Amino acid sequence: MEVHLPGRLDPVRLRAAFRRALLAHPRVLAREVPGRRHRRTFAWELTGRPDSDPVTFAGCGPEALARARARALAQCPPLTLSPPMRLDVVQMDGETGAGAATVLLLTMHHTALDAGSGLRVLATTAEQYGGTAALPVPERVRPGNPGPAPSGTGGTLRARPVRVAPDSRPGPVRARAVGNGMVQADLPVPRRAEPDGDLPSWTVNDQLLVAASLTVGRWNASRGRPAGPVRITMPVDDRPRGTEMPMGNGTRLVEVAMAAEDPRDTELLLRERPDPEAVARLLRSTARRTRALKSTQGAPMGAGASLLTAPLLPVGIRGVLTRGARRAAASWTSTVLVTNLGRVPYALDFGDAGRATAVWFSAPARMPRGLSVAAASTGGRLHVTLRWSRALLGDAAGAELADVFAESLSTTSLTPAGDASATQNNQNNPKRPS
C-alpha cells in the first residue's frame, strides 16, 4: 500500500505514532507459533508489542522509491515476527509527478492482513501523528433487495474461463521469470449513469469489472486468441471501518461472470472502439450480478478454502493437497482479480505533513491467474494498480496492458475523459509517461 503526502514527516514522531497505532489494534501484533508439520492447526500468538521496529526510512528521491517498491514486491514480511508488516518511508522533495514530498509504503503478509486492515492502521497512525480526533466513518451500504442474478450467470460459471494471453517471450524464458511487475495509474473517476426506472444504476466498482473484462478481451484478440467467458474474483468486505474494525483477512471472495447477455454483443464489445450501447448493457447486467453477490453471505475465502483449512488432516498434508488442488484447478481459475477499496473513508491527515493526495495498493498476482487490478479513490481521482506475474508478462507488456485498461475504463464513462491516458509509474521507472 502506497500513500503520498505533500509534506515531510518527522522520523521520531512517525515511529511513535505508528507504534501507538499498532497498540490501538492489538490483533495486528501477532506472530505464528512454530510447530510440527503433523499438527492439525496453525497457532498464532498476540505479542502485545512489536518484536522489532517495523519503520524504515528508505532514503530520498525517485531511485529510493523505485528500490522501496521493488522490495515491497519481492520481500514479504515474515509471519514469525510481530507485526507481519513493515513501513518504508521515502522523502521525495517534490520530485514526483504528483508533487508528493513523502511516500509511505506499507507492506503486509497477506496470510495475516489485508488492504482494509492496513488502511485502518495507517488511518490511526495519521490520527496519532496529527493529534486530531478520528472523524466519523460512514458505514458501507449494501442493497436491501437486489433481486435474482441474471440468468446468464450460471451458464458462464460452468464454462471454463479464458486466460490472459502471455507476451511474446519464449515459454522457457517466461518459466524462469520470478516475481511480480507493477504499474500505477492516476485516472479520472469514470462518470456513471443516473438510475433509469427499475434498471439498476452501476457503480464505479461495476465499471472497473467491465473495464477489466474488456481489457482481457481486447488484449487476447490482439494476440489472435478467441473470445471466451471472463470470470473475475472480487473481494467483498462487510466489516465496519471505524476503530472497532476487526484486523486480519476480513474479506469474502465472490466470482463475477462477465458475459454479455446477448451473444451478439461480444463482437461489438471487442471492436477497436467498443459499442457504447453494448457496454451499457454489460454494465447493467454486471450491476445486477454484483448487487446480488454482495447481499449474500458466504465463506470468507470461498468454499474451497474452508475445506482445505478444516483441521481434518495435519497442516503438512493439507499444504500438499492445496498445492495439488491449485494445479488441478488451474484451467478453472478465474481470469483476473479485481479489488476496489472505493472512496478512501479516512482523512489520512498527518498534520503539518498534510493529507494524503494519492493511495495505491496491490495484491499478489499468482499464477495461473497472474493478473490483479486494485483501485482506490482519493481526492476525486482513481488510483489503479495493475500487478502481474512475470511468468505471464514482462514489464513492457504489462505497461501496454495497463494502457489498454485505461482506454477500456474510459469507454465505461458517460463522457470519456480526455485525460484517460494519465501518467503511469512503472516500479522500475517511476517517471515513465503513459
Structure, described:
- The chain has two domains: 2-130, Chloramphenicol Acetyltransferase (2-Layer Sandwich), CATH 3.30.559.10; 152-340 and 360-426, 2-Layer Sandwich (Chloramphenicol Acetyltransferase), CATH 3.30.559.
- 32% of the residues lie in helices and 20% in strands.
- It is an alpha+beta fold.
- The chain contains eleven helices and 14 strands.
- The strands form three sheets. The chain has a seven-stranded mixed sheet.
Kindly, what is the distance between the CA atoms of the first and last residues, rounded to a whole number of angstroms? Answer: 21 Å
State the helical fraction.
25-40%
Largest sheet: 7 strands, mixed
Kindly provide the name of the CATH class of the largest domain. Alpha Beta
- CATH homologous superfamily (4th level) name of the largest domain: Chloramphenicol acetyltransferase-like domain
The name of the CATH topology of the largest domain is Chloramphenicol Acetyltransferase
| Oligomeric state of shown chains | single chain
Rg, please? 21 Å
- Total number of domains: 2
Mean pLDDT: 84
Question: What would you call the structural class?
Answer: alpha+beta
Shape: globular
How many DSSP helices?
11
Strand adjacency order, main sheet:
9-8-10-12-13-7-14
Please tally the β strands and state the result: 14
| Level-2 CATH architecture of the largest domain | 2-Layer Sandwich
